[in-house]
Amino acid sequence: MSINWKGVMPAVTTKFSNNDTLDLNMFEVNIQAQLEAGVHGIVLGGTLGEASTLLDEEKRTLTQTTVNIVKGKVPVLMNIAEQTTKGAVNAAQKAEEDGAKGLMMLPPMRYKAGNRETVEYFKAVANNTSLPIMVYNNPVDYKIEVTLDMFDELLKCDNIEAVKESTRDISNVTRIKNNFGDRLKIMTGVDTLALESLLMGADGWIAGLVCAFPKETVAIYELQKAGKIKEALEIYRWFLPLLELDINSKLVQNIKLAEVATGIGTENVRAPRLPLIGEERKHVLNVIETGLKNRPTLPDYKNL
Predict the structure, then answer these.
(1) Residue-wise pLDDT tens digits, 246-269
(2) For 61-73, what is each residue's pLDDT tens digit?
(3) Catalytic residue (one of 15, 59, 101, 164)
(4) Active-site residue 94, yes or no?
(5) Is 69 labelled as part of a ligand binding site?
(6) 121 part of the active site
(7) Sequence ranges of the domains in the chain
(8) What InterPro entries has UniProt attached to this entry (predicted)?
C-alpha cells in the first residue's frame, strides 16, 4: 500500500458543537469544500485537529466518518502523536482498521527522546502496520529533530515514505533531495514557506489555512506545478498575512475564525483552548477581513 505524496493535503480542524461533542455535520461541510477545491488528501488529528484533546473513540469516529465522506477520492491520513511506543502502535493499528490509508507520525510526546530512541519508536510503528508513514519533522514546536542520519536508518522500513518538512530551514528541502532523491517524498508543513519549498522541489503541502481557503491554496500548488510562477506568486503574496495566522500558538483559534468567515466552520474549540477575545481577536479578524476584501479572482487552476 502506498500514497501518491503530492499536492495539497489539509490538516483539517476538528469541529465541535456548543455542547463540546463532535460536530460531524459542519465537519462534512468543510471536507466537501476541500474535495470541491481539488485537494489531494485529508490529514486528521494533527495540531489543528486538536488531537491532544480528543478521546480515542472520537479519533476513530473522525477517521471512519472521513473515509465515508471521501469515498476513495483522496487518501485519508491519521496523525499519530502518542507518549509511548505501545500507544503509538495501537493508534496506528486502529487507524488502519478504521480505513485510513496512511499515517502522519510525530516523535514521542512529552519525553524528549534521544536519536536512537526516536528511530526505534518510528520503526516499531512501521513494523506493526502496513500503512505508509509520513514522519512529521518539526523540531521548533516538538523539540526533537529527525536528522538526515536518522532518516538513513528509518528508510530501511519500506513503508516510511515521506517527511512533513517543518524545520523552517528552506535549504533542508535540497539536503533531503541530495541525500535521498525520490525515496523520501517531501511535504512542506509551514504555510509561510510553502511556495518557496515547492519551488525548491517539495512534492506537496500539508496546509493549515487551506481549512478556510481551499481553492486559493490548491490554486497556488497547481499554478507553480504548471510553471505559472508569476500567477502563483500573486496569490501567495495576497495570502501571506493569512498564512501567518498558522505560525502562532493560537493557530487553532485563528484558523477556526477564518473558517467562520468563509462559511465552512465554527469557532468552537475544546478547553483548555478558549475563543479569542480582546485585542488579539480584533487583530485576527482584521487580517481575515482584509484578506476577504482583497480576495483574488482565481484562474481555472484545475485545467492548466
Answers:
(1) 999 999 999 999 999 999 999 999
(2) 999 999 999 999 9
(3) 164
(4) no
(5) no
(6) no
(7) 7-303
(8) Aldolase_TIM, DapA-like
